[in-house]
Amino acid sequence: MSETTPAMPVTATAAVGSPPPPLAPETKPGYVEKPASLWSDAWYDLRRRPLFIMSSILIAVLVVMALFPSLFTSINPMDATTCQLSTARQPPSAAHWFGKDNLGCDVYARTIYGARISIIVGITTTIVTAMVGGLLGLIAGFAGGATDSVMSRVTEIFFAIPSILGALLILAVFRTGNVWTVMLALAVLAWPMTFRIMRAAVITAKSQDYVVAARALGAGSGRLMFRHILPNAVTPVIVVATINLGMFISAEAALSFLGVGIQSPDISWGVMISDARPRFLEAAGPLLFPAAFLSVTVLAFIMLGDAVRDALDPKLR
């Protein structure tokens, strides 16, 4: 009785002369896997957050509106500076989508052009406060001792000044309400907050093992501050700066509404709200439309700041 030969498993073989299948990236010679970083993880997380996507789209539209307002007014050609007093306070119509204000100016065109000053003030003030407050906070937190004590006491003096009252005082001294004086008044009073946040982050970071190791290897103070500490301490400053940007836009509108900020003939949402206030009951559109744009802009930046905060803080994921 003959034994049966066991059946051999059938395997697929590559065709003669066909190239071998490509290697997976991790099996290639010399492949080194890049370690994940906080920023790459944050960007991966942000792209999947509806809050970030929605706020980014809104901010992108507002920035384009500020840079190229004619793109939005060319749909239905209207002039922001041409006013006819005989047509004052006309209601919205096909020719004038948001109606006309107390001087007979087109509210839609002025609202579009008003975005430029408001967003310029917000972005520029945010950059200035982040740079000044961040640099001083980095120095104070790294140096410590008497330097930290003196700079902290000076910062507390600025914290004792009410924001609106301090801005009113500064603008009253200059007696000219324009973009530069408004940005100066806001930046002078806002940098201490960034200083405190950066100082606290630097004090925490400079005691970490990687900083101690770099110091033991002979790294100088400049290299320790800007190469090792700053990249790991700047995260909370970025989050606060993103949220503060919307606050600076609303602060500019408040100062312009009080009559000490941006002045006519310059156009900003605060100026439009101030001009429309006396006749609000007769024509609500000239006040409501710029106020709505202002609210949406501030909300968009606050939403963006919240999304960035959640993505950069591992504890909130």
Automatic annotation (TrEMBL):
<feature type="transmembrane region" description="Helical">
    <location>
        <begin position="180"/>
        <end position="198"/>
    </location>
</feature>
<feature type="transmembrane region" description="Helical">
    <location>
        <begin position="287"/>
        <end position="308"/>
    </location>
</feature>
<keyword id="KW-1003">Cell membrane</keyword>
<dbReference type="Pfam" id="PF00528">
    <property type="entry name" value="BPD_transp_1"/>
</dbReference>
<dbReference type="InterPro" id="IPR050366">
    <property type="entry name" value="BP-dependent_transpt_permease"/>
</dbReference>
<feature type="transmembrane region" description="Helical">
    <location>
        <begin position="51"/>
        <end position="72"/>
    </location>
</feature>
<protein>
    <submittedName>
        <fullName>Oligopeptide transport system permease protein</fullName>
    </submittedName>
</protein>
<dbReference type="GO" id="GO:0055085">
    <property type="term" value="P:transmembrane transport"/>
</dbReference>
<comment type="similarity">
    <text>Belongs to the binding-protein-dependent transport system permease family.</text>
</comment>
<dbReference type="GO" id="GO:0005886">
    <property type="term" value="C:plasma membrane"/>
</dbReference>
<feature type="transmembrane region" description="Helical">
    <location>
        <begin position="233"/>
        <end position="262"/>
    </location>
</feature>
<keyword id="KW-0812">Transmembrane</keyword>
<keyword id="KW-0472">Membrane</keyword>
<feature type="transmembrane region" description="Helical">
    <location>
        <begin position="154"/>
        <end position="174"/>
    </location>
</feature>
<feature type="transmembrane region" description="Helical">
    <location>
        <begin position="117"/>
        <end position="142"/>
    </location>
</feature>
<keyword id="KW-1133">Transmembrane helix</keyword>
<dbReference type="InterPro" id="IPR025966">
    <property type="entry name" value="OppC_N"/>
</dbReference>
<keyword id="KW-0813">Transport</keyword>
<dbReference type="InterPro" id="IPR035906">
    <property type="entry name" value="MetI-like_sf"/>
</dbReference>
<dbReference type="InterPro" id="IPR000515">
    <property type="entry name" value="MetI-like"/>
</dbReference>
<feature type="region of interest" description="Disordered">
    <location>
        <begin position="1"/>
        <end position="29"/>
    </location>
</feature>
<feature type="compositionally biased region" description="Low complexity">
    <location>
        <begin position="1"/>
        <end position="16"/>
    </location>
</feature>
<dbReference type="Pfam" id="PF12911">
    <property type="entry name" value="OppC_N"/>
</dbReference>
<feature type="domain" description="ABC transmembrane type-1">
    <location>
        <begin position="115"/>
        <end position="305"/>
    </location>
</feature>
